[in-house]
Amino acid sequence: MSAPFKIVLVHPEIPGNTGSIGRTAVALGVELILIHPLGFDLSEKAVRRAGLDYWKHVQLKEYANFDDFMKQEAPKREQLFFFSRFAKTVYYKANFCEGAYVIFGAETKGLPTSITEEFSDRSYVLPTFSPHIRSLNLANTATAVTFEVLRQLRYCGEGL
């Protein structure tokens, strides 16, 4: 069975978040796509030092930039789901489809403005209600979204 969807991180900055998202990707059997530049080193030594013993099992693709990702993956617009704290539509209103790309930006900057402007109709937010929180942690957000995608696609497995 091919992966029902893919997780995409655009310019991730914090290795621990990427590591946690990688763990979720392995657990769910989905591909993780990283779009450069990254804010950390992905060398085997750095990954080992971080204790990411599962990293060798991550189905990983890397692209030099967002344009390369779009050209090489060639997703249909309806397969793209962007997540931003500035989006106006809550994520549970998204109609996730088979072959979806769930796309997240950098921890401190979010997605580049050029992307959020072009894909504003494909952008979603996880709600927060406290004025004391600027945004949610990237790894937590990606995990919440991936399980919503699975729920909608009914990849719940037998006995769950």
Structure notes:
The protein contains five helices and seven strands; from the N terminus they run βαβαβαβββαβα. With 160 residues, the protein is an alpha/beta fold. It has one domain (5-153): SPOUT methyltransferase, trefoil knot domain (Alpha/beta knot, 3-Layer(aba) Sandwich), CATH 3.40.1280. β1 (5-10), α1 and β2 (31-35) form a beta-alpha-beta unit. The mean pLDDT is 91.
Could you give a short description of this structure?
With 160 residues, the protein is an alpha/beta fold. It has helices at 15-28, 44-49, 66-73, 113-118, 138-153, and strands spanning 5-10, 31-35, 60-63, 80-83, 89-90, 100-104, 123-125. Strands 3-2-1-6-4-7-5 form a 7-stranded parallel β-sheet.
Task: List its salient traits.
160 residues; alpha/beta; Alpha/beta knot; 5 helices; 7 strands; 31% helix; globular
Topology diagram in text:
Layout: E1 5-10, H1 15-28, E2 31-35, H2 44-49, E3 60-63, H3 66-73, E4 80-83, E5 89-90, E6 100-104, H4 113-118, E7 123-125, H5 138-153
Parallel strand pairs: 1-2, 1-6, 2-3, 4-6, 4-7, 5-7
Helix pairs in contact: 1-5
Helical content class = 25-40%
Shape: globular
Helical segment count: 5
- Whole-number count of domains: 1
Determine the CATH superfamily.
Answer: SPOUT methyltransferase, trefoil knot domain
CATH topology: Alpha/beta knot
Uncertain parts: none
Q: pLDDT average, as an integer? A: 91
Computed structural class: alpha/beta
Give the N-terminus to C-terminus distance in angstroms: 19 Å
- CATH architectural label: 3-Layer(aba) Sandwich
Described by strand count, sense and barrel closure, the largest sheet is:
7 strands, parallel
Rg, Å, rounded: 15 Å
Series of secondary-structure elements, N-terminal to C-terminal: EHEHEHEEEHEH
Strand content: 15-25%
Strand order, sheet with most strands: 3-2-1-6-4-7-5
